[in-house]
Target: Esterase OVCA2
Amino acid sequence: MQSASNQENEKTASGGDEDQKGWWFSDVQARSFNAQQECESSLGLEESIETVKTAVKDLGPFDGILGFSQGAALVAMLCAVQEQKLEADFNFRFAVLVAGFRSACSQHRRFYEGPAITIPSLHVFGQDDRVIPEEMSRDLLPAFDGAQILIHPGGHFVPAASSHRQTYQDFLKKFQ
Model:
């Protein structure tokens, strides 16, 4: 899912700029996002959470949720919302977070302050990811109890080699 109200610019694999959607802005003035930028407040997160709530209500129910990059950071926050029972709108049985990270925005700390998230999770990250370095993805792991990990040698993408697909399938089979 992408929030239509937010946008971010990231370098694509081809090296060019591509206008992409985002879930919140870390730089409110510039209306931009950088995962490594520390900030006091963000713009757009609450609207993005409402967008997901609406999608779940209108299109769900869903067994699980998958997010990539900033979307994976949002998935972690949604899992925290569900775990802390702050909202009854979500009932995800599992989460897949690809190139996820812990938000550097102090306004988002509340999502990481509760007990570890018990929703089963698969965390996928690349050893050569220059957008979300491996260390950032590893920093998110303690927020989840019993997180399963898939590390690939590549960069900022969803790995899809046969061995990776097998890991996804094995993880998802638990929820059939």
